[in-house]
Amino acid sequence: MTVMSVSRLRRLPRAFVFGAAILIASVIVATFPSAFAPYDPLAMDYVNLLAPPSAAHPFGTDNFGRDVLSRVIHAYTIDMQIALFATLFPFIFGTIVGAIVGYVGGVTESIFGRVVDAVITFPFLVLVIAIVSVLGPGLINMYIAIGVVGWVFYARIIAAEVKVQKRLDYADAGRAMGYTHARIVFRHLLPNAITPAVVYWMTDMALAILLGSSLGYLGLGAQPPAAEWGVQIADGKNFMATAWWISVFPGFAIVLTGLGFSLLGDGLAEILRGRK
Amino acid sequence: QERGGVMTYGRYADSMFLDPVLNDANVDIWILSNMYDTLLLPTDDGQSVQAGLATDWNVSDDGLTVTLTMRDGIMFSDGTPITTEDVIWSLDRARNPDNGIWNFLLAAVSEVTAPDDKTIEIKLAQPDPAILPALSVFNAAIMPKAAFEAMPGETDLEKATAFAEKPVGSGPFVFDSWERGSTLKLVKNEHYWADGADGQKLPYLDGVTFEVIPDDATRILRVQSGELDGAELIPFARVKELQDDPNINMELFPSTRVADIIINVRPELDGEPNPLSDVKVRQAMNYAANKDAIIQVVTFGVGTPTSSFMSSTTPLHTGDGPVFPYDLEKAKQLMSESGYPDGFTASILTLAGNQDELGIATALQQMWSQIGITLEIQQVDNATRTEQYRNGTFDMRAGAWTNDIADPNQITSYFAYSPTIDALHSGWKSEEVDKLFEESQSELDTDKRAEQYARIQEVFNQEGPTVLLYETPYPVALQDNVKGFNQIPLGNNIFRETYLEKE
Amino acid sequence: MTEPILSVRNLTATFGQGASALRAVNEVSFDVMPGEVLGLVGESGSGKSVTLRSLLRLLPVGGHVGGSVSWHGKDIVRMTDAELRAVRGGQISMIFQEPMTALNPVLPVRVQIEENLRAHTQLDRKGRNARAKELMDLVGIPDSARRLDEFPHQFSGGMRQRVMIAIALASDPKLLLADEPTTALDVTIQDQILNLILDLRDELAMSVVLVTHDLGVVAATCDRMAVMYAGRIVEEGDVTQVFAQPRHAYTRGLLGSIPQAGTERSMLLSIDGTPPGLAAIPQGCAFNPRCDFATDICRRTRPHLTGDGHRAACHNSDAVIAAGSPVKKALSHV
Amino acid sequence: MSDTLLSAQDVSKDFAFGRSLLDVVKGAPIKAVHALNGVSLDVKRGETLGIVGESGCGKSTLARCLVRLHDCDGGRVVYDGTDIATLSGADRRAFNTKVQMIFQDPYSSLNPRMTVRQILSEALRVHNMRPKVEIDARIAELLDLVRLPQDAADRLPHAFSGGQRQRIGIARALAVEPEVLVADELVSALDVSVQAQVVNLLLELQDRLSLTVVFVAHDLRLVRHISHRVAVMYLGKVVEVAPTETLFKAPKHPYTQALLAAAPEVDPTRRTRRVAAKGELPSPINLPSGCLFHTRCPHAFDRCVSDVPQLTPRRPGHVAACHLPDPELP
Amino acid sequence: MSMTAFLGRRLLQLVPTLIFILIVVFVLVRLLPGDPASAVLGDRALDADVERINRELGLDRSLPVQFVAFVKQVFTGNLGNSISMKIPVTQLIADRLPITMLLTFMAAVIAVVMAVPLAFVAALRRDRLEDSAIRGAFQVGLSMPVFYVGLILLTVFGAKLRWFPVGGYGDGFLDHLYHLFLPAVTLALSLSAILMRNLRSAIIGVVDAEYVTFARAKGLRANLILFRHILRNALISTLALFGLSIGTLLGGAVITETVFAVPGAGRLMVDSIYGRDYPVVQGLTIALAVLVSVTFLLTDILQAWLDPRVTK
Ligand SMILES: Nc1ncnc2c1ncn2[C@@H]1O[C@H](COP(=O)(O)OP(=O)(O)OP(=O)(O)O)[C@@H](O)[C@H]1O
Ligand SMILES: Nc1ncnc2c1ncn2[C@@H]1O[C@H](COP(=O)(O)OP(=O)(O)OP(=O)(O)O)[C@@H](O)[C@H]1O
Ligand SMILES: [Mg+2]
Ligand SMILES: [Mg+2]
Ligand code: NI
Q1: Would you state the pLDDT for residue B251?
Q2: Residue A155 in contact with residue A95, Cβ under 8 Å?
Q3: What percent of chain D has pLDDT over 90?
């Protein structure tokens, strides 16, 4: 890292730096879980059921005798995936729709308004549960279910922001230059309108992990034997009194990752606000 | 025994419909007998019958007539006497093929009559060795005809719906109030006929309040905090912990509950040849399944390996010790002899959110991977699973069974006898078993019937469409002062002799 | 000669702490005489608003005021919060450039006037109501009784500015601080508001500090003026004197930038470059990189504000005086 | 230099309020801001036409109609003999290159996420102004033209001061080699000293490139300084048009007179304490009848309330819309 | 625009929303695999029974026919009978929706009570220790799965300390409030975190607003400035967010109600989805939609009251 980039790093908000550090570490762990995990996360050890934390198993073992630490580490892969994939489609699709709705306005906007109303009127979790039940459980279907609902929130944010940007002179300047609508929307307005959506995205990723764990609790999320924090916590629920380590450590992981995302989001918001 | 007091009992789910005939599920079945009395009652061990509203019973030698003598002075909880008319009407309603799903239990009955006002005569179209237990099943409960028919509505269903809002029966308890999803209150039936062993009138309790607490952990917490006197369906994981709790009496009531894996054995699935149709494969899977480990992991030692597809508490059960003791070598051997020496991939349906089934599947996933079978776990909700099950489009599913009647015929007709539901919708069929079962259905000679059942179990256990796992008791946590509560092997919660000991 | 009512000495305003602290206002000193209108001019960012706000210690979070502001023998910079509250809005009032943002959008005008009366007068409820109406009439808002219950967004720009003035006048202040009160307004409305302020000054015998960047406004309303550049006062004096004979090159440049009648479509006498940022104020005279008169000394040492009555901080005052006032030239041209 | 290049002919423009379903059900009348109410104006080749008026009188709306950022609701805008509303496709793009607009707000008129080079090359590319290889050279040329340093090309707008940004805006407009520049409040957001720089630049460019300029502003001194002719607008109407000197020396419309009187003089020795115009601009939603100015006019008489005055010639090249032939200066 | 016209418009907007929801939910429940009869009857039912019962329920008719029948029913205020419980859906809703409403309402109140003062402290002590501590604590609250938080609260405050009952709903209004306190806290956690964040930045945005400076220039007391000028303006944007979160809050009630054994509508909804109890799912969705819409309306009114510009 060059001197300059170090000094620039120092000027970034503290929240941003911490958040980014947590997430970069998380992504590394998620990418190479085997490099960090001491055991095979699926290996069962019937003589070592529910062993408390020890040198051999720093986070103890679960009711199958599986190493909790290794499972928490391997869960990074799935949970970071959930964070990304459950939000990526809503982000992209919502952004595109929102940009168009915000730019065109008028009737499109009224119709969109009703769609938003309908979606936010419907209890989110219930809708997701219903959709997952239609499609069947599993991560992909969970992504689809979250996506079907989630894009609306991005679209709302983007539409509102595009409407603001649209009124600024540079949008008119583009039109006065004879540029096409598509160019004005996607080349000019969108890059300027997208920041609140990106900030929301960060929060949303943390929420996606949480939602994933709620669905895991209901058996609708990640499927076993894959380790996923929510599923692990749900698994450990019956052992809160006797083997707290099964649920507490994955709980830490969720909190830490959530913290990473929201710090990053806060920091990002601060940077972007500062630039304005 | 001490009298009085109200017992609060925590259940995992609320009842849905308190009609003995039209109800559908265990949440209703298991408590109905507290409100509705039957002519005969199951014994505490669930193996045979004892006197109920009828004091004497007799099956004619040809097995075609059952004669019962009604108890004297019995009345419904509203004080109206129970007449033979009520009995005839109730049994006719229960056996009407248009009513509910339990009428098959009384399918052999052709006519119910009352020669005099103390006697009930039941005529059978063909002999039925299970007719006495059938009269002790919830759907044969005796209901007040007049009160029922006075209900608003045109159809039986409409009347039943109105009636079940505030049901009247002759069981030890009477319906008092019901907040759906939360509490169901029963109070003592002042008109109940039975006396306890101490000669006092039953029931001892003033009432029973059922509280619905779907979350296992919360249910246990409520017992531990003393807010509940008892709670059902304690997760096995917590049994040990509660056994160690000095204030709590952790009961494990013997049950007819068996857990297994149901395998679709149709030769083709989705147009592909189905490896599971190969009996060697199934045997290999049975051998490779380490039941002790599963019992340890899933039931935390509470369960015992099944020795037959039916539980050891079922009449005419045979066998002892696991049918397929864990033997990986043998399993590998069998696999290599099968049509699929290199293994295959198959999926298993488990109920979303059900930790037991998930545990079984997770353990099997690992165990079977050693004989080359890749198991994909699919957690689905009940309706989805039932649909796939019914359509026969599943590979495997986790299954559990509890008898409703103190006779092996119910479980066998579902498990082994193909005309009922295709042997657990598995597509399995054995001419021999079908024939034996049909014969046993009207076989009055107990020994002969036992032989028939022994053979059915032998065939099914060896070749059947299941991986046999374990049987488990009913885990019920009770406060130390709760005495005389019983959950019989059929699942019924019996409060009539329950009392709360005062210090 | 009368005593000044407000006397500012070495006023400094800093933002931030330690090494990254920025000085937005640097050792500014001036007096305000009773009944006079003092104009504070300068380009955007020169520190006019910060100076004005520092007088009442109204800087946003992170701002710090130094120096002294003496008001009736007391130093505002060192007053306790309670004392300060009595001065703020009581003896010294302030109005802002953008009435839409300076009036609380969610409160009716009545509340916004009343809270000021409640803070600074002994009037009872009825008295406050009557006074509020009186104030609305005073600033020329027709139908005042009804309009008191309206919200700021229901007023036009000019009316809003009148409302803000009414609020500021609520407790008969002796000094009115006005931060570009007419910049957001149309000429005809600006003309009305400026005249209103002058009328009120006469009626209520108060002094006014008027911040503006429009030399036209200064010429039309102020008695004395101070020109700010990069956080400092560079020239100060009687308005007529300064216009007729600017002594600082920057003042001269400003005057020259204004189009004059009779010079149509000719090049304006502009100042090259842009004002410096606070973080990079040039050495010596802050104006030297943009100055046509700059000499070596300008690049080395900072000039002090010198002179009597008409003061300027310029090493080359003489040269500037010699070059003459661009306005004069224009005027003589007509 | 008297041939008309661009003209507005009886242009009107309304901005309707959103009508809710409920309004429709209730049959409430359609409410609209009447931003332009029949504006007629010619812009001659090579001249600078100044347009002045108070805030909200429709200056910007008119400017936008001239470059077809708005489509007018009534009347038409004719450029070089063709009604611009009929243009579409390639013709429309060609028109866009010929008539360019520069904007008021130096902060919002540039896309904050595009470098100067991107902004300029986009304009050049979309309109195929230069072959690809020459684009960099052309950008250098343009920067030179507006007096920006060459290293400005690769910086983002936030790195520039307001005056510099306005130059970038001018460069962007000039990139497509227009004939007409419509400048809406080009310098009103700038400091006086910087204002002067930009005004000087505009004057210079106009000479060099023989541009026609429509200069919209509310600053009378500025308009006077750079315009050949000046049009005064009030409530969406042109009330007076005259050569600059004439207009400032001998205004014929009472509104023009009030406007001139209200503007403070840069001479402290010539103060007045008389209020130039009473009252405020009426709401453009409910326009006054007759002469729009009658509510504030010191000379108003009954005809002003009932009849709409037309623009009538007063002197050569000087028209005004007032019922009085020669209202006295107040 | 007057307040009545504003309300009228909002009510009219509700109509298409409800129709849209009606269609979506009708189609969605029928897309769910499985049918009501087999869902209710479970594994033991015979095929003939299943068919018979589905026929009795009218599920053998074509979808459009069913939909028309359904819409007719809805307009007569009859939402049909529950398939599993056999009783009228309206009765079920009347029994159980108020519980969820009370729970959500309490959660909303608790969320506001937790968020507002702490947002103030965090905003006014921005970037100091207090700020970091408050934001960190809320973050933890936000990141914890609801079922986990619920269980911890139950264990600690219910079973261990005995301050609160371990789940259930109780008898009588005050007892209800007492029983619902812990679940409401659980439900409120994530909402309060979101509100706190939003309000904190809104306050930071408002603190430097010109009208706050003007208020200070008037010599007002700090408290007056804080409450009258800062809080009220900051609340406006937070209020909108709050309204939007009601749907999410109701959704969160599903899990909370399960953990705390509260017999509310959320649990009923999920049970009914699993039980393929079409009439209950449909009826409950409509009821929830109306409820949420009314909440939106209320927040709109509140917002219009806080911010006179809104009705414009
Ligand atoms: N809160 C603040 N934090 C840091 N710097 C500030 C703050 N407020 C003002 N400044 C800086 O102080 C300097 C003076 O600002 P000030 O607002 O007094 O200028 P001004 O002369 O009033 O300009 P304008 O004509 O634009 O109102 C500017 O450089 C500005 O960036
Ligand atoms: N897009 C729009 N939607 C609705 N009303 C508009 C729109 N644009 C302008 N108006 C209204 O049209 C009228 C004329 O506005 P315009 O911007 O043309 O005035 P202007 O003379 O340029 O004023 P300013 O000096 O403030 O720029 C105003 O009342 C304005 O509110
Ligand atoms: Mg300022
Ligand atoms: Mg304009
Ligand atoms: Ni209680």
Answers
A1: 93
A2: yes
A3: 40
Distance CA B469, CA E99 (A): 42
Q: Return the CATH architecture of domain A69-274.
A: Orthogonal Bundle (1.10)
Residue D29 near chain E (CB below 8 Å): no
Cβ neighbours of E251 in A, within 8 Å: 123-127
> Distance between alpha carbon A212 and the CA centroid of its chain, in Å?
10
Q: Are C and A neighbours with ≥3 CB pairs closer than 8 A? A: no
Structure tokens at C12: 């400094």
What local confidence, expressed as pLDDT, does residue B487 receive? 92
Lowest model confidence (mean pLDDT) among B216-225, B253-262, C261-270, E86-95: C261-270
Q: How many domains does chain D have?
A: 1
> Which residue, by CA, sits nearest to atom 6 of ligand 2?
D15
D61 contact A CB<8A = no
Q: How confident is the model at residue A4 (pLDDT cuts 50, 70, 90)?
A: very low
Best residue among C11, C40, C48, C211 to mutate for probing ligand 1, ranked by most atoms within 8 Å of CB: C48
Q: Which residue has the tokens 């000495």?
A: C9
In this structure, which residue's CA is closest to atom 8 in ligand 2? D61
User: Which positions in chain B touch E151 (Cβ < 8 Å)?
Assistant: 215, 217-218
Q: Do residues B307 and B319 make contact, with C-beta atoms less than 8 angstroms apart?
A: yes
Q: Residue E283: CB partners within 8 Å, gap ≥ 6?
A: E79, E80, E89, E90, E92, E93
Task: Quote the minimal CA–CA distance from D87 to chain C in Å.
Answer: 35
| Chain-chain contact of E34 with B386 (C-beta, under 8 angstroms) | yes
User: Using CA atoms, how far apart are residues D20 and D26, in angstroms rounded to an integer?
Assistant: 10
Determine the average pLDDT of the residues in E4-19: 77
Q: Subunits with at least 3 CB pairs below 8 A relative to chain A?
A: B, D, E
Q: CATH number, domain at D274?
A: 3.40.50.300
CA distance A24 to B294: 40
Q: How far apart are CA D270 and CA D229, in angstroms?
A: 27
Q: Do B363 and A64 touch (CB under 8 A)?
A: yes
Distance CA D261, CA C150 (A): 32
On whether any CB of chain D is under 8 Å from the CB of A173, the answer is yes
Q: CB burial class (10 A; 0-12, 13-18, 19+) of residue A258?
A: buried
Domain ranges of chain A: 69-274
Hunting for tokens 């989001």 — which residue is that?
A: A265
Q: Which domains does chain E have, with CATH numbers?
A: 3-76 (no CATH), 89-311 (1.10.3720.10)
Q: Say if residue E312's pLDDT is above 60.
A: no
- Calpha distance A190→A195 (Å, rounded): 9
- C103 in E contact zone (CB under 8 Å): yes
Do C and B touch, counting CB pairs below 8 Å (3 needed)? Answer: no
Give the dihedral sign, CA B409/B410/B414/B419: positive
β-sheet bridge partners, residue C176: C93, C208
- Is D328 part of a structural domain of the chain? no
Q: Which atom in ligand 2 lies closest to the alpha carbon of residue D218?
A: 25
DSSP string for E91-108 = HHHHHHHHHHHHHHHHHH
Q: Are strands C63-71 and C6-15 parallel, antiparallel or unpaired?
A: antiparallel
Please indicate whether, in this complex, the C-beta atoms of C106 and E217 are within 8 angstroms of each other: no
- Who lines ligand 1 at CB under 6 A? C 15, 22, 24, 42, 44-50, 60, 62-63, 213, 278
Six-digit token string for B416: 């082994």
Q: Tell me, yes or no, if D21 comes closer than 8 A to chain E by beta carbon.
A: yes
In whole angstroms, give the CA distance from residue A201 to residue A204: 5
Fold of C6-222: Rossmann fold (3.40.50)
Angle made by CA atoms C273, C276, C279, in degrees to the nearest 5: 150
Neighbours of chain D (3+ CB pairs under 8 A): A, C, E
- The boundaries of the domain holding residue D127 are 4-18+32-320
Q: Are E204 and E197 spatial neighbours (Cβ–Cβ below 8 Å)?
A: no
